[in-house]
Design goal:
The protein is of the alpha+beta class. Helix content is 41%, strand content 18%. The strands form 4 sheets. It has a 5-stranded mixed sheet with strand order 10-11-12-13-14, with helices on both faces. α1 (6-17) runs antiparallel to α13, α5 crosses α10 (205-220) and α10 crosses α11. The longest helix has 17 residues, at 367-383. Mean pLDDT is 95; it is low at 150-154.
Length: 412
């Protein structure tokens, strides 16, 4: 069994995720789809104090790219929306896998809610689908809420709830987004344009499980058995014994990682990267900000085990209970999660505000650290079209003055 140390495992993970090295060339539109194919999933979230999460996840990997390329990939059918880890974009090549997995997602809140809507609102849901079939794609905004009627379920009106239920059940798909608002249409008019035989008999449950395991491990680079199910939110946590058959076939390689209390697994397609990791030939040069919904940190237990990074998204907590801030972005620096910051992009003022920035325990300030942080902040701010960077409170306190000075020096 190959034996890696903890840092070699981290580098293998970041290599698989496309976060090991700073991009060497300017991104092109095809890189957006390639990045999503590499991750297998791109989680969607609507908070936009900085760029919305899917756009920020791509920036972390591609650098200065045009966000409208993601919108175009959806409209062109290169990717599609589905419920998986949560609401996600996925590559169209995995459509059959996600379609078949839908019937196995009864444990997930999104499916439970959709099934309840379908049961309790069957007739208006049928009429809504008939309307789409006869009149074409719709947005929730196409339907007006009756005056004086209270809203429900996240403030959604009935039609929005029905549209979302139909989407979760597979009766509707997302044709495109307009100002990030979903446009719903029938599957035959969305996926039917690009996937011949899209409505054929679904994959057997055993094949769905096998492909989800293999795809998750490949996307993660290296994973413990207990981490795998979270990637697709597929339900039951896997044990090492569950993976024996996949290891015997040679699809997954079982490895040891010093400091881990369980073996790791590497997809055979990552064998070359594994060999480089074992030889010490993987080098981390990239420093960037991560979304709270980046695959690297969306499994908080995995981030803690792999990076020693204790992370919790605090935007859903009352302000007085927040330790680090509202929408806290992990800082990835050369293979390690070295800190976190709470940021807001003031677009009309062209200012990128870092409200607070905290270094992790044991991370020492140095000229090299300041240089990497300054460069990463300036790149992210420029991509947001908010080139002026403002630094607020920090821990340690002296970081504020030192980082401000470095930013001013680098801007000259």
């Amino acid at each position: 069994m190959p034996i890696l140390d903890a840092q070699q495992a981290r580098l293998l993970h970041l290599s698989a995720q496309g976060l090991l090295s700073t991009p060497r060339r300017r991104a092109v539109a095809a890189d957006v789809v390639a990045a999503i194919e590499r991750m297998a999933l791109l989680q969607i979230d609507t908070i936009h104090v900085v760029a919305r999460s899917p756009y920020l996840v791509l920036f972390s990997r591609l650098g200065d790219y045009r966000p409208e390329w993601l919108d175009a990939a959806l409209a062109d059918g290169a990717i599609f929306e589905c419920w998986s880890h949560e609401a996600c974009f996925a590559p169209v090549s995995d459509y059959a896998l996600h379609r078949a997995a839908r019937s196995l997602r009864g444990h997930h809140w999104s499916m439970k809610h959709a099934l309840r809507i379908a049961r309790d609102h069957a007739e208006p849901l049928r009429r809504l689908l008939d309307h789409v079939r006869a009149n074409g794609a719709v947005k929730a905004a196409d339907f007006e809420r009756p005056p004086g009627r209270a809203s429900a379920w996240w403030g959604w009106k009935d039609e929005k709830r029905w549209l979302e239920a139909a989407f979760a059940l597979g009766d509707l798909m997302i044709a495109r987004r307009e100002n990030f608002h979903r446009v719903y249409d029938l599957p035959e008019r969305v996926i039917g344009r690009v996937v011949p035989g899209w409505n054929e008999a679904p994959l057997p449950a055993a094949e769905v499980e096998r492909r989800q395991i293999e795809t998750a491990v490949k996307a993660l680079g290296i994973a413990q058995a207990g981490w795998i199910a979270d990637y697709f939110r597929s339900g039951r946590r896997h044990r090492d014994a569950d993976l024996d058959a996949v290891v015997e076939r040679g699809t997954l390689l079982r490895v040891e990682v010093r400091g881990w209390d369980a073996p790791g697994y590497v997809h055979c397609d990552r064998a070359d990267e594994l060999a480089k990791a074992l030889a010490g030939a993987l080098r981390a040069s990239h420093t960037t900000l991560l979304s709270p919904f980046d695959p690297v940190v969306w499994d908080r237990a995995r981030a803690a085990a792999m990076f020693g990074f204790d992370y919790r998204l605090e935007c859903y907590l009352p302000a007085g209970r927040r330790r680090y801030g509202y929408f806290v972005l992990p800082i990835l620096r050369r293979g390690r999660l070295c800190g976190r910051l709470d940021a807001k992009a003031h677009r009309s003022e062209e200012t990128f505000e870092v409200k607070t920035i905290h270094l992790e325990p044991g991370v020492a300030m140095s000229d090299a650290l300041l240089a990497d942080l300054s460069a990463a902040l300036r790149r992210c701010a420029a991509w947001h079209r908010t080139p002026r960077v403002v630094i607020g409170r920090s821990a340690p306190r002296e970081l504020t003055r030192a980082l401000r000075s470095r930013l001013e020096s680098d801007a000259r």
